[in-house]
Automatic annotation (TrEMBL):
Region entry Disordered, spans: 253-320
Assigned protein family: Belongs to the band 7/mec-2 family.
Pfam family, one: Band_7
Gene3D superfamilies, sorted: 6.10.250.2090, Band 7 domain
Protein name, per record: Membrane protein
GO CC entries: plasma membrane; side of membrane
Biased composition (Pro residues): 255-272, 281-293
SUPFAM superfamilies: Band 7/SPFH domain (SSF117892)
Domain Band: 22-180
Length: 320
């Protein structure tokens, strides 16, 4: 009798141990347990720790509540200013309602991944290239809002979205490099011109100050000589003021007498004004005087003298 009781007790103990082994579950601190009994959701979500379910009847699903880091594959698209880019991002999300995450969507991780890719393509088409490169904080907030709106109904909360990298074509990279180089060159020229302007103003003030005190120019000349001589070189450059050269040039030129002004010719009398119908004045006639004498040989003049006859020479020569 005792042996039968002992064997029955041993059988019950073994059955209880098997039952406990089949029904016992352990939920970790970062997990929540969702129980389905005959396929129906039980209202209470199991907290972390040791818990029991009905074997064969209940099914316990553990849902991880940790923040999930999901990389979004690189998406290629065309920006609003017609530039082809490839953008990849990363999504940080977590489950806030374990029951909703299992019931509302089949696979919440796959759903969040697909929604992130679609939203990333939409953001690329709505943004300019400059926004993708320099204004990423605004784009990250826009992506987070686009993902969080449908995900909140799945029991999933989007923690943050970050754009990791923006890949550009090589031609666009070279164009941007040339643009940046030209902008740097422009800024350098503007800064150099500003420095020259400030230096010219200071030099003009120094020149006015030295003009008021001529000894200051001599002191400045001596300081320059001392600065050059301190470098231990054999050549000494001595600057000469320009005023001294001009003084020597004026001293070497001979004095010139002032030229006397030439007398101006008398002005001719103005012709008289003529009215309509008047004749122009005639030149005055010369007064009658003695007729000019006629030259010899002319009509009315004395006869021309005859040439002398040549004397005959006994030798046959003629002399004048």
């Amino acid at each position: 009798m005792v042996e039968e009781l002992l064997s029955a007790a041993a059988g019950v103990g073994i059955a209880a141990a098997v039952y406990v082994g089949a029904a016992a579950r352990v939920v970790k601190q970062y997990e929540r347990g969702v129980v389905f009994r005959f396929g129906r959701l039980m209202g209470e979500v199991r907290r972390p720790g040791f818990t029991m379910i009905v074997p064969v009847v209940d099914r316990l699903h553990k849902v991880n509540l940790q923040i999930v880091t999901m990389p979004v594959p690189a998406q290629e698209g065309i920006t609003r200013d017609n530039v082809t880019v490839r953008v990849d991002a990363v999504v940080y999300f977590k489950v806030v309602d374990a029951a909703e995450a299992l019931v509302r969507v089949e696979d919440y991780k796959f759903a969040v991944s697909q929604m992130a890719q679609t939203s990333l393509r939409s953001i690329i088409g709505k943004s300019d290239l400059d926004d993708l490169l320099s204004n990423r904080e605004k784009l990250n907030q826009g992506l987070e809002l686009m993902l969080d709106s449908p995900a909140i109904g799945w029991g999933v909360q989007i923690d943050r979205v970050e754009i990791k990298d923006v890949s550009l074509p090589e031609t666009m990279k070279r164009s941007m490099a040339r643009q940046a180089e030209a902008d740097r060159e422009r800024r350098a020229r503007v800064i150099n011109a500003d420095a020259e302007l400030q230096a010219s103003k200071k030099l003009a003030e120094a020149a006015h100050q030295m003009a008021d005190a001529p000894s200051a120019l001599q002191l400045r000349l001596l300081q320059t000589v001392m600065a050059v001589a301190a470098e231990k070189n054999s050549t000494l450059v001595l600057p000469i003021p320009v005023e001294l050269l001009r003084f020597l040039e004026r001293a070497g030129q001979p004095p010139t007498a002032p030229a006397s002004p030439l007398p101006e010719p008398p002005a001719a009398p103005a012709p008289p004004l003529l009215r309509d119908g008047d004749l122009p004045p005639m030149a005055p006639e010369a007064p009658p005087g003695p007729a000019p004498e006629a030259l010899p040989g002319e009509p009315g003049g004395p006869a021309a003298p005859e040439p002398p006859l040549a004397a005959a020479d006994p030798e046959g020569r003629q002399e004048p």
